[in-house]
Design a protein that fits this description.
single chain, 4 helices, 59% helix, flat
Length: 59
Amino acid sequence: MATQTEDDSSVRKLSMDTEAHYRQQAACYRSSKEYTEMKKLYPLLETYIEYCRDEQLIA
């Protein structure tokens, strides 16, 4: 079984990227084909949610 030293702790190596990095990631995602296709499903999803709103789905 391998042991970790204090300097080798994975927790100590964790760090967050910059806000700019996350903004760039979001912009890339929002301009993707997959995101565009997903957004096209929103009206359908809203219709189904409204249709089932008063249903007792769990006994």
